[in-house]
């Protein structure tokens, strides 16, 4: 089990719940838009948000963003050690640096000193595009990635700084899995896991589900980011679904049949609506959306509550038994009532 690290009011490692991360893609200097996006990410289920600080103007804005943020913020720093120290002083709950691009060791030491003084952790690591020169000749790229990340850790340890989170990411799913397994076998620092540069939606979902899911199912990983080229809100939604699917976060799971010529309703549209209707329920609940009553009820019998389409509407069933026939126009209100009844009964 990894050691615990506190990031604001969120604790990762030590068996604590897996924290979901994402990153703003607004201009940090635009305080209003950045705060608005952070709030939206939090509402979607994000626990930690990373914010880029590329210049002093962004650093000044960051102080105001921290005051208005509903979640702990991680300052993303490259090259300029002064920005890292400034972000720490301006309220960052964690800083993400790459000691290799900060420059001289005395600069890294100044960052570590400031982080220790303010009691915040530092995330270090490597990705497939930033492997240190000393490890680029390794035959095994996953080990090279892992050792490059561990070298960053050793730099901080040499400065007697141990409040560390490690990240080792590759655009290759296999390399990401193998690198994180390697790191986990060597140290007990909490790991931030994800597949970097995973691509647009479909590719990103597939890569992240395999890479992150495999590691989490083996007990490796303490905080995750699903990297998607697009809206960061989608990163959070997919991360939540991933955690719910493997039983690491409570919530509603909507199952739906793959459809066939017997289908009496628009399964895809209705399933999406059901997810929207019940997505905020923070309890384990399975809702089935089935296209017909021929075998839909039997296939969905393990669901807590379900819908099966008919020519005039649907039937609502619970634990495999039909409890009500409804017309299409009344489906939403009756389903809400049946879900409410089921949850009350279970409670």
From TrEMBL:
<dbReference type="GO" id="GO:0019288">
    <property type="term" value="P:isopentenyl diphosphate biosynthetic process, methylerythritol 4-phosphate pathway"/>
</dbReference>
<comment type="function">
    <text>Converts 2C-methyl-D-erythritol 2,4-cyclodiphosphate (ME-2,4cPP) into 1-hydroxy-2-methyl-2-(E)-butenyl 4-diphosphate.</text>
</comment>
<dbReference type="InterPro" id="IPR011005">
    <property type="entry name" value="Dihydropteroate_synth-like_sf"/>
</dbReference>
<dbReference type="GO" id="GO:0016114">
    <property type="term" value="P:terpenoid biosynthetic process"/>
</dbReference>
<protein>
    <recommendedName>
        <fullName>4-hydroxy-3-methylbut-2-en-1-yl diphosphate synthase (flavodoxin)</fullName>
        <ecNumber>1.17.7.3</ecNumber>
    </recommendedName>
</protein>
<dbReference type="InterPro" id="IPR058579">
    <property type="entry name" value="IspG_C"/>
</dbReference>
<comment type="similarity">
    <text>Belongs to the IspG family.</text>
</comment>
<feature type="binding site">
    <location>
        <position position="292"/>
    </location>
    <ligand>
        <name>[4Fe-4S] cluster</name>
    </ligand>
</feature>
<feature type="domain" description="IspG C-terminal">
    <location>
        <begin position="253"/>
        <end position="340"/>
    </location>
</feature>
<dbReference type="Pfam" id="PF04551">
    <property type="entry name" value="GcpE"/>
</dbReference>
<dbReference type="GO" id="GO:0051539">
    <property type="term" value="F:4 iron, 4 sulfur cluster binding"/>
</dbReference>
<keyword id="KW-0411">Iron-sulfur</keyword>
<feature type="binding site">
    <location>
        <position position="299"/>
    </location>
    <ligand>
        <name>[4Fe-4S] cluster</name>
    </ligand>
</feature>
<dbReference type="InterPro" id="IPR058578">
    <property type="entry name" value="IspG_TIM"/>
</dbReference>
<comment type="pathway">
    <text>Isoprenoid biosynthesis; isopentenyl diphosphate biosynthesis via DXP pathway; isopentenyl diphosphate from 1-deoxy-D-xylulose 5-phosphate: step 5/6.</text>
</comment>
<keyword id="KW-0560">Oxidoreductase</keyword>
<dbReference type="Pfam" id="PF26540">
    <property type="entry name" value="GcpE_C"/>
</dbReference>
<dbReference type="InterPro" id="IPR045854">
    <property type="entry name" value="NO2/SO3_Rdtase_4Fe4S_sf"/>
</dbReference>
<keyword id="KW-0004">4Fe-4S</keyword>
<keyword id="KW-0414">Isoprene biosynthesis</keyword>
<dbReference type="GO" id="GO:0141197">
    <property type="term" value="F:4-hydroxy-3-methylbut-2-enyl-diphosphate synthase activity (flavodoxin)"/>
</dbReference>
<keyword id="KW-0408">Iron</keyword>
<dbReference type="GO" id="GO:0046429">
    <property type="term" value="F:4-hydroxy-3-methylbut-2-en-1-yl diphosphate synthase activity (ferredoxin)"/>
</dbReference>
<dbReference type="InterPro" id="IPR004588">
    <property type="entry name" value="IspG_bac-typ"/>
</dbReference>
<feature type="domain" description="IspG TIM-barrel">
    <location>
        <begin position="3"/>
        <end position="239"/>
    </location>
</feature>
<keyword id="KW-0479">Metal-binding</keyword>
<dbReference type="GO" id="GO:0005506">
    <property type="term" value="F:iron ion binding"/>
</dbReference>
<feature type="binding site">
    <location>
        <position position="260"/>
    </location>
    <ligand>
        <name>[4Fe-4S] cluster</name>
    </ligand>
</feature>
<feature type="binding site">
    <location>
        <position position="257"/>
    </location>
    <ligand>
        <name>[4Fe-4S] cluster</name>
    </ligand>
</feature>
<dbReference type="InterPro" id="IPR016425">
    <property type="entry name" value="IspG_bac"/>
</dbReference>
